[in-house]
Write a structure and sequence with these properties.
It contains 18 helices and no strands. The protein has about 500 residues and is mainly α. Helix 7 packs across helix 8, helix 7 packs antiparallel against helix 14 and helix 15 packs across helix 17. The longest helix has about 35 residues. The two termini are about 35 Å apart.
């Protein structure tokens, strides 16, 4: 079977692959502010708290990527570290998550551009959102089809732009605040939301901040196209997590001291639910345009990164035989999984335009986001368990209790509230901030639930008719690693099935 293009991208490209999938500009502008009604002026502390939690999971995934670089990424890690059937179900869920990224963020692109255009020129209807959504999906399809070099390097440019814009704007707000700067926002002093004062508000707010980190692992599916994947993928995952975590903390701090920490619990509703646009307008037209551009730029970068992840996951599963083999076919010129790209394009257009037309693009965004988050959090939780399993079964001599047991356990525990919140499961002791999902947002959760049930049906079928395909999920491909000066051929290692500890 044809292979993905080897050594096509380096550390910079794969680091920005993860960064773009985190969509920092969109997360700063949309996701993180949802924590302000709970954390109040202590939202910067909630961001730091969420970062600490997600850092543990990033460490677990980085440890696995250092030993099992594969386009199957979290699915292969789970198959090797736990059981092949677990890896299949993780990949089944992960593929659904990643195919939803494009319609999700392109809906945001559509209603953001149409809404801002309408606010400046009322003759332009917000109903024209579909034009920008369609153009965005087609652009992303073109970039990903052109191969990993084109899409990943485009991601570097787009990711750098959104980081620079929000970094400069955040620093400007901090300098402008002058004597109003107050590091007490990193304590519980301003955690003043009614019913959520103190640490209860910080923890509740951090659950929403956790979701802003989703996508940190997205470098992993590019392992088979990356130079020195055993080193570069773990580095990329940690670089993305730490750098964007720092950006989130800085920008949330800037927003809190600018808006006022005492009243920050009202930040999410400011400027008709677009608080960062409101802050930028208050400073001047130039900053408003830059922030708007960064948000639009972020949606394209996120879609581009998500499409890369889906197509590589589909390729890996097609190669293993658990997805149709057609999904593993590569374009002879660009070495991209062409049929997977076309499937991503078709599903993206159908979901975005179909749901957006039936409801509204904003409501459609909520439906898709709900389905996506309900699945991605369990995927991260299982990755932590896979780290424990892998170093207990295959690398026992290298296992370090803190790094390979304690850290994954803490990462797993941090994600539990995020899952209950995403699924709208109420009545959980200590999680009184969770609100039950309302219709039609429940459609996303139900649809993902049906998809997971279908995964179990597919697993039963494959176990009976193609058991070797399930086992193949746990068998990483052989990837040659460039020889390093001074090393012997005997000392070199290539990516193969992990060694098993002798009984």
């Amino acid at each position: 079977m044809a292979q993905l293009e080897r050594n096509a991208v380096g550390l910079r490209e794969v680091a920005f692959q993860s960064i773009c999938c985190m969509a920092p500009a969109a997360a700063i502008a949309a996701s993180i502010p949802f924590g302000s009604p709970l954390a109040g002026g202590a939202l910067p502390l909630a961001v730091v708290f969420a970062f600490i939690g997600i850092f543990f999971t990033a460490s677990s995934i980085g440890q696995l990527a250092a030993h099992i670089p594969s386009a199957g990424s979290v699915a292969t890690y789970s198959a090797v570290g736990l059981r092949p059937w677990v890896g299949f179900l993780v990949g089944w869920a992960y593929a659904a998550v990643e195919i939803l990224i494009v319609p999700l963020v392109m809906l945001q692109l559509g209603y953001t551009v149409a809404g801002e255009w309408n606010s400046e020129n009322s003759s332009f209807s917000t109903g024209n959102w579909w034009i920008f959504t369609t153009l965005g999906i087609l652009l992303v399809g073109f970039l990903v089809y052109r191969g990993v070099r084109t899409s990943a390097r485009t991601g570097v440019i787009l990711g750098a732009i959104e980081i620079v814009v929000f970094l400069l704007f955040g620093l400007y707000l901090i300098v402008k605040a002058g004597g109003n700067n107050d590091l007490a926002v990193f304590s519980t002093k301003y955690a003043n939301a009614e019913g959520f004062t103190g640490w209860s508000g910080v923890i509740a707010g951090s659950v929403f901040c956790l979701l802003a980190f989703a996508g940190f692992e997205a470098a992993a599916p590019l392992a088979e196209e990356t130079e020195n994947p055993k080193k570069n993928i773990p580095k990329a995952v940690m670089i993305a997590t730490v750098s964007i975590g720092a950006l989130y903390a800085l920008t949330t701090y800037a927003a809190a001291i600018t808006f006022g920490p005492d009243k920050f619990k009202d930040f999410a509703a400011y400027n008709n639910g677009a608080p960062w646009n409101g802050l930028a307008k208050g400073v001047g037209t130039i900053f408003w345009l830059l922030v708007l551009f960064a948000i639009i730029n972020s949606t394209i970068a996120n879609a581009n990164g998500g499409a890369n992840v889906f197509t590589r996951t589909a390729y890996a599963f097609g190669r293993a035989g658990v997805f149709p083999g057609k999904l593993a076919e590569l374009d002879p010129k660009y070495k991209s999984p062409r049929n997977a790209v076309l499937l991503q394009l078709a599903v993206g257009l159908a979901l975005a335009l179909g749901l957006g037309s039936k409801y509204t693009p904003q409501t459609a965004f909520g439906i898709v986001a709900t389905g996506l988050v309900v699945a991605i959090v369990p995927v991260y939780m299982i990755a932590n368990l896979a780290c424990i399993g892998y170093f207990s079964k295959h690398r026992r001599e290298e296992r370090r209790p803190l790094l390979h047991i304690i850290v994954p356990i803490v990462g797993f525990l941090f994600l539990i509230p995020g899952f209950f919140n995403a699924a709208g499961i109420t009545g959980v002791p200590g999680l009184k901030f969770i609100v039950a999902l309302s219709s039609p947002l429940t459609l996303g959760a139900y649809a993902m639930g049906v998809w997971i049930l279908l995964g179990f049906v597919a697993l039963a079928y494959l176990n009976k008719n193609k058991p070797e395909a399930i086992k193949a999920v746990a068998t990483p491909p052989i990837v040659s690693i460039p020889k390093v000066k001074g090393e012997t051929s005997r000392s070199r290692t290539s990516l193969t099935s992990p060694p098993r500890t002798p009984p």
